[in-house]
Specification:
binds magnesium ion; alpha/beta; binds adenosine-5'-diphosphate; six-stranded mixed sheet; 225 residues; globular
Length: 225
């Protein structure tokens, strides 16, 4: 379970202060599928970056499975991020000179997994995202939907329990966006992952169980049912 207690994030730019998140109190249960909506500049990415341990709150605490992440050292936080959290971005962030299989394998390579074990894990994941035939293709030889599926495969290859996605379908047309959403549904239903998806699209948000609205750095919730 994730618990955010009174999270604030203030950016300082010169003499200016931007209060990007204000007193955020939120909990996410294990295996929940949540979407985050809100206008541009409202603080969605800041919230997701804090959830993903890519950024630190100015104040407040972040508890993951009852453990206070905010009091951990940078190394401990990096460990938690590597093992428990996957992150997906709007622009995929794949490495252009590596093949799909090599991109997906990267976290395992960095973790020092032996090649045989690694290759078999990559083969399984390629199959589960429907890209076995594209294993040797580089990103520029793949469609947007295929690229995002490679990015999701890479983000989940360490078997994290949480997947965070920042506008993952923002660069995709509605058909290829559908492929990505089907994959999220699969990760949610079969792997019981906790999914948090930032989106501008009502259609994308509607696939989640719960929608959080962010406005001017503050959250409000409206249940779906
Ligand atoms: P969203 O993802 O909803 O579009 P962001 O979380 O990116 O919004 O930004 C929220 C606010 O914080 C905006 O006013 C933005 O300009 C500001 N902000 C975000 N990141 C930084 C940063 N690194 N430095 C200064 N201001 C930032
Ligand atoms: Mg954003």
């Amino acid at each position: 379970m994730i618990e955010l207690r009174d999270i604030n994030r203030i950016f300082r730019v010169g003499d200016e202060k931007v209060h990007a998140l204000q007193d955020i109190r939120l909990t996410f249960e294990h295996g929940e599928y949540v979407s985050i909506m809100g206008p541009s500049g409202s603080g969605k990415s800041t919230l997701l970056n804090i959830l993903g341990l890519l950024d630190k709150p100015t104040s407040g605490s972040y508890l993951l499975d009852g453990i206070d992440i905010t009091s951990m050292s940078d190394n401990q936080q990096a460990d938690v991020r590597r093992n428990k959290i996957g992150f997906v971005f709007q622009s995929f962030h794949l490495i252009s000179r590596l093949t799909a299989a090599e991109n997906i394998a990267l976290p395992l390579t960095l973790a020092g997994m032996p090649p045989k074990q690694r290759d078999s894990r990559v083969r399984d994941v390629l199959e589960s995202v429907g890209l076995t035939e594209r294993a040797e293709h580089r990103p520029d030889q793949l469609s947007g939907g295929q690229r995002q599926r490679v990015a999701i495969a890479r983000a989940t290859i360490m078997r994290p329990t949480i997947l965070l996605a920042d506008e993952p379908t923002g660069n995709l047309d509605s058909r290829t966006a559908g492929e990505v959403l089907d994959l999220f549904a699969q990760l949610h239903e079969q792997r019981k992952m906790t999914l948090v998806v930032v989106t501008h699209s009502d259609e994308v948000a509607a696939r989640a169980q719960r929608i959080i609205h962010v406005f001017d750095g503050q959250v409000s919730e409206h249940g779906l049912d």
